[in-house]
Structures are given as structure tokens and as C-alpha cells.
Amino acid sequence: MLDLKISNGTVADVSETYAADIGIKNGKIVAIGKKLGDATRTIDATGKYVLPGGIEAHCHIEQESSSGLMTSDDYYSGSVSAAFGGNTCIVPFAAQHRGQSLADVLDTYHGRAGPKSVIDYSFHLILSDPNDDVLHRELPQAIADGISSFKIYMTYDRLIVDDGQMLDILAVAKKHGALTMIHAENNAMIKWMSNKLVDSGHGAPKYHALSHPRTAESEAINRAISLAGFLDAPILIVHVSSEAGARIIADARYEGRKVFGETCPQYMFLNMEQMDLPGMHGAKLCCSPPLRDRASQEEIWRCLQNGTFQVYSSDHAPYRFDDTGKLHAGPDAAFPKIANGLPGIEMRLPLLFSEGFVKGRISINHFVALAATNVSKIYGMDHCKGSITEGKDADIAIWDPDDTRTVAAEDMHDNMEFTPYEGMEVTGWPTTVLQRGKVVIDGNKLLAERGEGTFVPRRTIDCTGMPGRVAPELDPAINFGVDFGL
Ligand code: URP
Ligand code: ZN
Ligand code: ZN
């Protein structure tokens, strides 16, 4: 006897779309097909899509920024909001600030997430202090403990790593099978532009969009790919906002380099014109990299459609429009002191379903790839998550493709008082969400308790099909036998 059966729905994976029932027992998918037999409970999915639960792999939850500012969402509100948006797993950041040990950082974040998250979770580390102990003892230990990815920053004074530190980190990642995520923007260009703008009286929030030029992004992406390519270490360029940056990633992938690309809904659905608001309201849309122009939105869509971006994440970084968040440096602070980041964990998938799948820009299979499957493979979770496959966790989102709603902040479940997508009409919403076979979202009801989510240790990174090779100078076959320990 099955515990649960989802019947009469349309199931989709990354390549097929078919009519099937799903049988679930002990939290796992145990059967897919027709005539599956009796179940204790049946959910009728007639007219609906039965898809893998989303995996949100870039979000900042209960995280202090480098200037000590706490996000407005903790692991309860952040995970609830994610679940209402069709996600069954989140991978937020555990941020190391300078002087902190990775063991302490991970203890802190396990303590934050464990008692509160309503859905499963893992962490990426943020590395800002790659000293010898971190590099050669703590990082390998963290990878062995299932934290097989970490983010580094090429900008922000309190987080930035220089090129030498990047090489050190990339070498450790390569050796231990981890993936380095890179925030690629040229710090000096941003500072130069910011100083010029503020000094000439252009400190209003909208000028943030000018202060992080596209060239700052493309220069840093190019440098990151060169450094990683030198060592043949896998990297993922996060939150790409410009076509110039995307092209560098596409070229590197064409050459077989181990490079993945990520973009975010804000670069597809929002643009810098929307920052031109009275007073400080443009601060709500300050994020880095910044919103670009309308033409960029189309370019980013194209790069999502053509596979340049394998990952589509919210980069949910929730700061309220008050002195606890966006305006922490004062009610009329110049843009360099405005907290960076947008909320969007709940809207990531409905926006893509509506504007991507329903409007015919991507197939339902591509939607599934971007919602869950690609991320599960890239981040080492596909042994248990990311697709509707027998033996995997029964993490499932049932989508109603005919449900049309107008987006409103008051309907979101995060701890924010605004959404950048206010007023948009969105067709297609998750109506039932199951985590390991248990219903966590039923319509507008939350059925999960705090702490029901569990930590997902992740495996090392699989770069099959991405040949790459170390630079000749590092290759003992042609460098007179020098072993660089890679
Ligand atoms: O503006 C953003 N994206 N804030 C979040 C931090 C980051 O760099 O992803
Ligand atoms: Zn970033
Ligand atoms: Zn981020």
C-alpha cells in the first residue's frame, strides 16, 4: 500500500512530458506510471503539472552582510516563502567574515537553520579570509561534511579576495571536488564610478545602476575564467546581468572550460528605469550587479533560452525599506551606503513559469531544468533531489497552469513589506507542495512545522563532459616534471 498517490497529472522532467501517476512511500518516489495500486491518500492533479520541487540555490537568509546588517528573513520566514513559491530545498550562504573560523560559521548557520527551516536545506560557504588553516584544514573538512561549494567576491572591501587568494581557493576546490561560485565585478571600477557620481552630486539611488558598469562585470568574469582555466578548476559565475558577461561564459563553455553561469529574475523582469523614483524609493531596487536597461532584459532572456545560463536563482537578499535594512545608513544616504539586494525567493519560479513557459519562451522541460534539475546536478544533490525519479525524495510541486494572480507584497510570505514585482499579472502557481512525501503547502495553507527541514550534505562536483585542462606550465608532462599538487 502506497502512502500517497498523485493521480491524473502531467509529469515533466528535463526531456519528457507525460501523463502518469506518482506513488510515494516512506518519503520516496517508489512508482511512476498508471494502475499503481492503492494508497492511503490520493491527490487528484487533473489539469495540473506535477514537477520536481524547486531548489533555490542562491539566497541570503538569516545572514549578516559584511557591514553587519542582518537580512529581514530568518530560516522560518525565508523557508516558508520559498515553499509557497514551489521550492522544496534551499541552499543559502553561511558567511565567513574576516577572523572567523569555518567551523564556527557552520555551527552558527546549522543552529539558525535546523530549528526553523520548514524545507530541506544545505549551505554554500562565503569565504572572505582564506588563511592557511582555512585553506588546508577547514575547507577540505567542510567539503567532506557536504558543503561542496563556496562563494568568493571580487568586490566589496570587507569580502574581496585578490587574484592570488583566488588561485589558492580554486586550487583547493579543484583538489577536493568543490565548486567555486564567483561574484564577478571589478572593485576599482565600481569605486571610481561611485566616487565620481557622489562627488558630482549624483548620490540618489538610481545612480547605483551607473556605478557598477557592465565592463566591471565582464572584466571580472574574464579574469575569473582565466584564473580558473589556468588551474582547470570548476567555477560558477553568479548573478550575471549583462550580455557581455554572458558571452564570455558562452565562449569559455564552447572551449570546454568548466564554467557554469547563473542569472536571476531581476535581470529579466526589471530594469534601471524603474529606479527613477522620488526620494529614496529607488533604494528598493539597488542590487549588485545592478539592474540594466530594457535591451539587456531581452539579452539575458536569450542567454537563458540558449543555455548559456544553466542556473536561475532569486539571489533573495531581503532588506526592508527602513533603518533596519535599505536605509540603515540614514534616510537619505548616498547609494554606496544603501543595502544591496532584492527579495524574490517566492516569485522566482512563478515568474519563470508565467513569462517563460506559459508565454512560450521556454518548454516545460526547460522550466524543470532551471527550477531544480540543473542545480541538483551542479551542486551535488542529484542522488536524492531534483527530479521525479523512482528512489528520489518525493519533493514535488503541483502547478496549476490556469491560476492567474496579481502579485502583491501582502500576499508574499517573506518578512518584507515590498516586492519588486508588485502589480505584475502572473499565470501559473504552485498549489500543492510536498517535501519528502508530506504536504507542506496546500493552497494558501502552510502545513509544515518549524524545523521539519533537514540538512542535505552534498556530494563533490561532477564535471563530466567539460574537458578542460591545466595550463601547460602546470602540466608535469611538459613542465620538466614540476608537481604543483593540483
Ligand atoms: O545585491 C546583492 N546581490 N546582494 C546580495 C549579495 C550578493 O552579492 O549576492
Ligand atoms: Zn553576489
Ligand atoms: Zn547573492
Your description of this structure?
By secondary structure, the chain is an alpha/beta fold. It has a domain at 52-368: TIM Barrel, CATH 3.20.20. 28% of the residues lie in helices and 22% in strands. Strands 1, 2, 3, 4, 5, 15, 16, 17 and 18 form a nine-stranded mixed sheet that branches. It starts with a strand and ends in a 40-residue tail after the last strand. The model has no long low-confidence stretch (mean pLDDT 97). Residues 183, 238-239 line the site of one zinc ion.
Strand content: 15-25%
**N-to-C span:** 52 Å
Instruction: Please identify which CATH superfamily of the domain at 52-368 we are dealing with.
Output: Metal-dependent hydrolases
CATH class of the domain at 52-368: Alpha Beta
Q: Can you write the helix and strand succession as a string?
A: EEEEEEHEHEEHEHEHHHEHEHHEHHEEEE
Radius of gyration: 22 Å
Q: Could you tell me which ligands this complex binds, including any ions or cofactors?
A: N-(aminocarbonyl)-beta-alanine, zinc ion
CATH topology heading of the domain at 52-368: TIM Barrel
Count the E strands.
18
